[in-house]
User: What shape does this take?
Amino acid sequence: MEKVAETLRVVSHPARLRIIEILEEGERSVTEIQEFLGITQSLTSQHLNHMRVRRVLPSRKNGNMVFYSILNPDVVKVIHCIRQSDSV
Assistant: This one.
């Protein structure tokens, strides 16, 4: 349960929830994520790094670019469940 609670704490920020939503479509670069969010690259990188360190998102480098994806699809399922129950 500790790991579950930690994961929920990590994704509980609105920008991080939006990142998860963006990554549902598939892997994205930091620049793409930053453009979707409409916040600075520095702040985007901080959010991404926070989730990477806590093993919510994996990253991979390709040259100068860093790409992120969702490590555990169950995180998305939980967010969808909450979103559905919130709209009822």
The longest strand covers residues 59-62. Residues 34 and 61 are 17 Å apart (CA to CA). The chain is about 60% helix and 10% strand. The first helix runs from residue 2 to 11.
